Amino acid sequence: QVQLVESGGGLVQAGGSLRLSCAASGVVFSINAMAWYRQAPGKERELVAAISSGSSPYYADSVKGRFTISRDNAKNTLNLQMNVLKPEDTAMYYCAAYGDSGVKVGSWGQGTQVTVSS
């Protein structure tokens, strides 16, 4: 099993920055790709960014040019640098891990709340 723990959220003014981190533990050698999702109140969870070995990172159109996803395999961490934050970025952010077959490994973590004030 893989356990994921998100951190780094907080309250920030529009235009500000935050850096989220996700620490993976357990059967980490089974992880091929990782991703960040977010879920705002009353909305479905949406994919924000994803990263996997040998492929270019994926970004949702709404965050392209503002967010950067990175992975530190030595530390088993996934990061999301968020710049020029907007009120519409307000959501609970979650990380996810996927095995070679593209199947999600492990459960969702508790998430980390990002709130952007206007």
In short:
The chain is mainly beta. The protein is 0% helix and 53% strand. It contains no helices and eleven strands.
**Helix/strand/pairing class, anyone?**
mainly beta
Overall 3D form: globular
The profile of the biggest β sheet is: 7 strands, mixed
Rg, rounded, reads 14 Å
Q: Note the quaternary state here.
A: single chain
Q: Care to describe what's here?
A:
The chain is built from no helices and eleven strands. It is an all-beta fold. The chain starts with a strand and ends with a strand. Strands 2, 4, 5, 6, 9, 10 and 11 form a seven-stranded mixed sheet that branches. A four-stranded antiparallel sheet has the order 1-3-8-7, with no helix packed on it. The model has no long low-confidence stretch (mean pLDDT 95). A hairpin with a 4-residue loop joins strand 7 (67-72) and strand 8 (77-82).
Question: Would you spell out the secondary-structure blueprint of this structure?
Answer:
Blueprint: E1 2-7, E2 10-13, E3 18-26, E4 33-39, E5 46-52, E6 58-59, E7 67-72, E8 77-82, E9 91-98, E10 104-105, E11 112-117
Parallel strand pairs: 2-11
Antiparallel strand pairs: 1-3, 3-8, 4-5, 4-9, 5-6, 7-8, 9-10, 9-11
Give descriptors for this structure.
seven-stranded mixed β-sheet, globular, mainly beta, 0% helix, 118 residues, single chain
